[in-house]
Amino acid sequence: HVMCPIFCAANASADYNVLFMEIAAREACNLGLVVLFHEKPFAGINGSGKHANWSIGTDTGLNFFHPGKTEQSAELFVTGVACLAAAMKEHAELLRCAVACAGNDFRLGAQEAPPAIMSLYPGTEFEKHMDAVINGGPLVGYQSGKGEACVGARSAMSAETNSEDRNRTAPFPWCGNRFEFRAVGSSQNCSFPVAVCNTMMAHGMSKLSDLVEGGASHRDAVATLFQEARQVVFTGNGYGEDWPEEAAQRGLPNLKTTVDAVAALTSDKAKALFSSQSVMNEAECEGRSEVMYDNYNNCVRVEAETLAHMVRTGILPACAKDLKTYEAAQALAGDRAAVAT
Predict the structure, then answer these.
(1) What is this structure's pTM?
(2) What is the number of other CB atoms lying within 10 angstroms of the CB of residue 335?
(3) Rounded Cα distance, 274 and 285, in Å
(4) DSSP code for 230
(5) Longest dimension (CA), the chain
(6) Which of the 8 DSSP states describes residue 174?
(7) Which of 13, 45, 163, 271 has its CA 20 to 30 Å from the CA of residue 311?
């Protein structure tokens, strides 16, 4: 099942998401059911997650991630992606930290969700445009447009699509007028991942500002950001067996566990980022990391104790009852005793 809230301001959207989770849990209880928000409750069966559709805009209606139909909007779009790419290249491990939780460790990279390697997917055609800008080309010239997809039925019309594929294997793909952070866990509050995206984006914008104020032209500043962040842009198969090796060669971190990822929050680089943008001070970074570690420990402990309780109260008694049936005919028991022990 999918729940799609109406797109709105990030803080309100995050609140609506939590409110939905509370209502779903309450109503399920009234029906004698339980809603599982665990990212991977059953092995071998697809888990669940949240896709945080995120964009940056102005109070005058400009969207940094929509190419639009004018040169101004096209330049804004290319500039916005450059700032985002620069931020992701410098703080990829922090983006992974934003989606770190016990359940998500079992979901990320499990052929149903993006890998734990944080990369940016702006589309294959935009990647070509980005390389052209790096090589001296103008900021404008990228054509987004619309495409059509055959639905496979002669009685139905073709469906309108974006010109760029969304790439379901990517953790951060572009979706026409926004980016979709696809690695957020289903049990998570979206506010922290979105706050990290906002903070990183602000840092990317400050890098652009520093270049322009230092004398670089708008075009050259954007080209510099793209060139420095080229390694984080990946338009291939995120599920491919060769991607982790290639990512390592690109210098991209692959933090597979929550314990490894949360450590990024207390790094000097992360503390400097949050402090520079007046989001969190050093003590608050330390405090949030402690809360994340404590939440991880509690989740793992509860799951382990629950499994042990299920074995003691359900599985072992059933095994004992089954073995007792064959007390007078051991030869018919087969390997039951070995299996039970």
Answers:
(1) 0.88
(2) 7
(3) 8
(4) G
(5) 92
(6) B
(7) 45
